[in-house]
Design a protein that fits this description.
It is a single chain. It is built from 5 helices and 6 strands. By secondary structure, the chain is of the alpha/beta class. The chain folds into 2 domains: 35 residues; 82 residues, Barwin-like endoglucanases, CATH 2.40.40.
Amino acid sequence: MEEKTEKMGEEEEVKSVKRVDVSKLVSIIPPPSELKREEKRITEKRIRIRYDESLQEDQAKLSKELAKFLGISEDDQVEIVVAGRKKFVFKPIVVDELDPNTVMCYPEKLRESGVADNSIATIRKYRGTGR
């Protein structure tokens, strides 16, 4: 009889080791809200517009950091909106040495529309087709 109790004891130990705690398994499964959640990507940023006479018409210089932040490449176009009303489309020139909160723009078009040097504006990647 002693052998049987030992065997039963061993079997009980084996059974207790093989049991898996269901709550631990459930904690691995993410909740439904996490499955459908998408990462928010920032599409626009507030910046300062500065005049740069050395640029050609329809060009804007922006920092490499800002371009990466907004997902802009030199093949794209950028839209700059001043006061929510005045919209300008420029071809970006990405440079390293510029401040990420400043964009240098060709000034003639801005002056004609009444936009002063060092104005606050919003910049985003242009999604339109042409001008």
